[in-house]
From TrEMBL:
The reaction(s) this protein catalyses: oxaloacetate + acetyl-CoA + H2O = citrate + CoA + H(+)
Record key words, sorted: Transferase, Tricarboxylic acid cycle
Protein name: Citrate synthase
NCBIfam families from the UniProt entry: cit_synth_I, PRK05614.1
């Protein structure tokens, strides 16, 4: 019988799809995405409904276990996570080793990987379902604590311990913004905005960081090691790092006098490497459904916090308007993506720019976990792409004196 694998081995013929623009890496039952229609569904549920009605932990449960939890299941899940929010005291010592200029994403990925040292059983390739479950719970529980500590550490502030009487989002905000000298008032508008943002970021099928998590995990690497790798992928400015770049771009436009057309022209100039950050998406070619929800949320949050006259919001709106009516952006189907407005909300919530991608990682965590678990449960083979070799065919070694 004709064997395509054998033929490829014999002829060296492989399919080349740089950037995997049209190559599926796996089958997955987690997230459905239709880039043409702007549809995003987690386990079949539209993102619009989840963002409006659900809580982040409920969505995390949905992504990881495949169904919305009953009240009893959610209470149990919540209770388990609450139990594991503390991190080992020795982890605090690791923070001390980082120079103060270290980017929070570098600290986050290092500390998530360091969890393998505190829970050595987590690196076993033969985890029982109970062990896998415990690793998942630990990661979801400790990530907000570690994330908030990266910020506190960089600021030189005392670290706050988690408050288990608060829900997931409120506890994170408390750890970020509370001082021993000052009572931190939890604002429900802020908690609700954070909840929405985390839900919108929770999964996005085989994006760069998620594919990284699956690829690393396919070598039977641990959940913590795989997620640590995903955090580094997310840090890249063409991926999650774009949310930090968007605010920096808006600030640069404001500092330059606020002329958006000048920056639109720069983005269109092929001799200029400048890109309009927060515009364009590999898969969404009509609109990013998350951006629609976030745009409304940004308006609501700024209103509620009395910041509706924010100059950055004004510049963002102008930029969006100008780009959407410009032939260059229309022809290339470049629309605002999820990162365009999320930074404005983060900034309004008082989250410093360097922490924006950490916020994205916090949101994306359930997706990474769900995808890693699915990959393990489906016993997927190790990921190992082929290549088209373009180098020298064969050469004889020459001694150094003869080169
Ligand atoms: N500003 C100006 N031009 C752009 C932009 C942009 N933001 N994005 C794409 N283009 C242009 C390209 O120059 C190219 O033009 P050409 O056909 O004349 O050469 C065309 O549009 C296609 O661009 P590609 O880079 O080939 O598109 P790709 O699908 O590979 O990239 C990406 C998608 C990386 C998101 C890109 O649009 C980009 O760099 N955007 C800015 C960064 C950003 O916002 N990233 C966040 C993505 S969302 C997320 O990760 C959560």
């Amino acid at each position: 019988a004709f064997d395509i694998g054998k033929l490829r081995d014999q002829t060296g013929y492989v399919t080349l799809d740089s950037g995997y623009k049209n190559t599926g890496a796996t089958k997955s039952a987690i997230t459905f995405l239709d880039g043409e229609e702007g549809i995003l569904r987690y386990r079949g549920y539209p993102i619009e409904q989840l963002a409006e009605k659900s809580s982040f932990l409920e969505v995390a449960y949905l992504l990881i276990y495949g169904a919305l939890p009953t009240q009893a299941e959610l209470d149990h899940f919540n209770g388990q996570i609450t139990k594991h929010t503390l991190v080992h005291e020795d982890m605090r010592k690791i923070f001390d080793g980082f120079p103060s200029a270290t980017h929070p994403m570098a600290i986050l990925s290092s500390l998530i990987c360091a969890l393998t040292g505190f829970y050595p059983q987590s690196v076993s390739p033969d985890l029982s379902p109970e062990e896998m479950e415990l690793n998942i719970i630990r990661l979801l529980a400790k990530m907000p604590t570690i994330a908030a500590w990266t910020y506190k550490n960089n600021m030189g502030h005392p670290l706050n311990y988690p408050r288990n009487d608060m829900d997931y989002c409120a506890n994170f905000l408390y750890m970020m913004f509370s001082f021993p000298t000052e009572k931190y008032e939890i604002n429900p508008v802020v908690v609700s905005a954070l909840n929405k943002l985390l839900i919108l970021h929770a999964d996005h099928e085989q994006n760069c960081s998620t594919s990284t998590v699956r690829l690393v995990g396919s070598a039977n690497a641990s959940l913590y090691g795989s997620v640590s790798a995903g955090i580094n992928a997310l840090w890249g400015p063409l991926h999650g790092g774009a949310n930090q770049e968007v605010i920096e771009m808006l600030e640069a436009i404001a500092a330059d006098g606020g002329d958006t057309s000048k920056f639109i022209n720069k983005a269109k100039d092929k001799n200029d490497p400048f890109r309009l950050m927060g515009f364009g998406h590999r898969v969404y070619k009509n609109f990013d459904p998350r951006a629609k929800i976030i745009k409304v949320a940004a308006d609501e949050v700024l209103q509620a916090l009395g910041m509706q006259d924010s100059p950055l919001l004004k510049i963002a709106q102008e930029l969006e308007q100008a780009a959407l009516t410009d032939q260059y952006f229309i022809e290339r189907k470049l629309y605002p993506n999820v990162d365009f407005y999320s930074g404005i909300i983060y900034k309004a919530l008082g989250i410093p720019t360097e922490m924006f991608t950490v916020m994205f990682a916090l949101g994306r965590l359930p997706g990474w976990i769900a995808q890693w678990k699915e990959m393990r449960e489906n016993k997927e083979p190790i990921g190992r792409p082929r290549q088209i070799y373009t180098g020298e065919l064969e050469r004889d070694y020459k001694g150094i004196e003869a080169r």
